[in-house]
Structures are given as structure tokens and as C-alpha cells.
Amino acid sequence: MSLEPGDTEDRSLAHWSEARRAEMDAFYRVATLDYRELVRAWSHTARLAQATSDAPLRILDVACGSGKFPAALREVDAIQALAPGALVLDLLDPSSFSVEEAAASLTAPMKAGRRLVHTLQDLPTDARDYDVVWAVHALYALPEAELADGVVRFLEAMKPDGLGFIGHATRSSHYLAFYEAYLEQFRPDGTPYTSAEVVAQAFRDAGATVNVAPLRYVQVIHEEPVLEGFLQRCLFDETLSLEAMRADPRLGAYLAERTTTDGSVRFTQDVAMITIQR
């Protein structure tokens, strides 16, 4: 049984640290695909491409993590063509490690603005009038009991004609299904990840106009060390080895169902692309 303490939100925050860099790097060897797939399917890149250095676009990156969504956006030709400083990102995350990681990752045409070491629900009241507010694979550990407060802060941060965007896994995705199986076996009193369905409904309940577009893709992992690090990060539990996962009846069956004849493991991700207007 896993011995790492803390519930979902606490363990998530603890894993954003220099001490967990190897695990984080293994995770992003796989999860970088998440952001590239979202960028390929996102219909609002052209809005960002209208920015100039004289009229920069102000963006709030909610739960910015390591800055992987901006990195994927910089691969788009229209974004690469922008002048330096055309996109100014204020970085919000409860982890100072994440904020500094994301800030260091930004290159032209993006530059870091304010560094906001807070949760979304504690967003400062002067963080307002953003052209774009996004939260990309960012809100899983936000407790449902605090989601309504976070939604209010998100909407307040947007300009009246601003764009809100959330890329978030649905209940059927690997991220949520695997974590649910883990909780059942190892942490029956643990808090599940918040799903895209719940997030979208919270914005509707707050009076926002919400459009949801589905996105499905498959992650394929061939190397066992990468698989172990990726799965440990999915669980925010580095004490549970790949061997222990496979030995567990529920997790082992889950992984066996997704292992192909060549030994690779395939995870299907069902993601909701949620566009929000006030």
C-alpha cells in the first residue's frame, strides 16, 4: 500500500518541486502530447496572432505548471511570427516552483508578467481585465467544494469580451479512470480528480456561456522507466512502483488491458475543450 501522506490537493502541490524533477520529466515525455493535441484542435489561435508589441495581449495562465501549453503554442507558425512581447502571460499557481519554471520557459513572442503564487480561488482582486484566461490540464486537484469560488474568480479576471479556455480530461479519460482505480485500491477516502463535466457545469451555473468540443487522442509508451514515472505522476504517488501497480488486481488489470503485443502501453485521453464567455 502507498505510504505517501496527504490527500489529492496536498500531494499534487508537493510534487511540484525540484526533488520530483525526474518524475516530472518522465511524465512530460508522454504528456507533452496533451498540449500539442490541444493546440492543433484549438480554434482561437488566430485571436492570439492578432497581438502586437504595441498592443500586447494580456493572458492569465491559471495553474501554469511548467508552461507546456505556451510551449506548444510557440510551435504554431502564426505565433512564431509575432513580435517579441506581443503575448504577456501572468502566471498563477500555488507552487512557487511552478511559477518560476513557467516563467523561465517563456521565450519570444511571449514574456512573463506578474508572478501570482496563489490558488485560483484566492486570485487577487486586482488581477483583472485579461484578454484571455486559460487553464489547461490544470484544475484536477481543485476540490469540488471550492470550484464555485474558483469559477467566480476566473470569470472576474476576464474582460467583458474576453476569452476563457479550459482543456480538461473527462470522466472516461485515462487520467481520471486510472486515478479512480488507484483511490479505490489505496486511498478509499481520497478525493477524486474533478472532471471536465463538473467544471463545465460550474461555469454554466455561474451564468457563463459555455461551448464544449470533444478531443480524443492516444498516448503510446514503449519504455518501462518512462511508463513508471508517467503513472506515478498521474497518481502523485512516487512510492508505488510499476511492479506494485501490476501486482495490484485493479491497477494490474487496467494496465494489462492497455498493453499491446509488442509490449507498448496505450492510454486513451478524452478531453473537453471548454470555451467560456461572460
Number of strands: 7
- What value does the Rg take, in angstroms? 18 Å
Shape: globular
The percent range for helix content is 40-55%
Helix/sheet category? alpha/beta
Percentage of residues in strands: 15-25%
Q: Show unreliable segments.
A: none
Could you state the order of secondary-structure elements as H and E?
HHHEHHEHEEHEHHEHHHE
How far is the first residue's CA from the last residue's CA? 45 Å
Largest sheet: 7 strands, mixed
- Walk across the major sheet and give the strand order: 3-2-1-4-5-7-6
User: What is the count of DSSP helices, taking H or I runs of 4+ residues?
Assistant: 12
**Average of the residue pLDDT scores:** 94
Plain-language structure description:
The protein is built from twelve helices and seven strands. It is α/β, with parallel strands linked by helices and 278 residues long. A seven-stranded mixed β-sheet has the order 3-2-1-4-5-7-6, sandwiched between helices. Helix 6 links the parallel strand 2 (87-92) and strand 3 (110-116). The longest helix has 21 residues, at 21-41. The model has no long low-confidence stretch (mean pLDDT 94).
